[in-house]
Amino acid sequence: MDTRTLCSRIKYVEHSLINAANEARSSIKSSRKEDEENCLNTVTLVLPLILTFKYIVVIYIGCQPVTI
């Protein structure tokens, strides 16, 4: 194998490793973003339910402050 072929193969492997590292990095960033969005969506959905339930409990108990 001559030097030119060896160098081109080394460069190919180097570029492949760089691309794989970049894909892994972007995958990690996107999964973190999805986790943050899922957490935010959960809070957005659950918080009104908790507040509504608390309001209903306060009404049924006779307007006494209740913490759940």
List keywords for this structure.
single chain; 68 residues; mainly alpha; 0% strand; rod-shaped; transmembrane helix; membrane; transmembrane
Structural class: mainly alpha
Distance between the termini: 75 Å
Provide a count of the helices.
1
Rg (C-alpha, Å): 28 Å
Q: Poorly predicted ranges (pLDDT <50, ≥5 residues)?
A: none
Helix fraction?
A: over 70%
State the total count of DSSP E strands.
0
Oligomer: single chain
The H/E string reads H
The whole-number mean of residue pLDDT values reads 69
- The backbone outline, from C-alpha atoms, is rod-shaped
Largest sheet composition: none
The percent range for strand residues is under 5%
Keywords: Membrane, Transmembrane, Transmembrane helix
Structural overview:
This protein is mainly alpha-helical and 68 residues long. Helices cover 87% and strands 0% of the residues. The chain has one helix at residues 3-61. It is rod-shaped, with a radius of gyration of 28 Å. The model has no long low-confidence stretch (mean pLDDT 69). The chain crosses the membrane at residues 39-62. Keywords: Membrane, Transmembrane, Transmembrane helix.
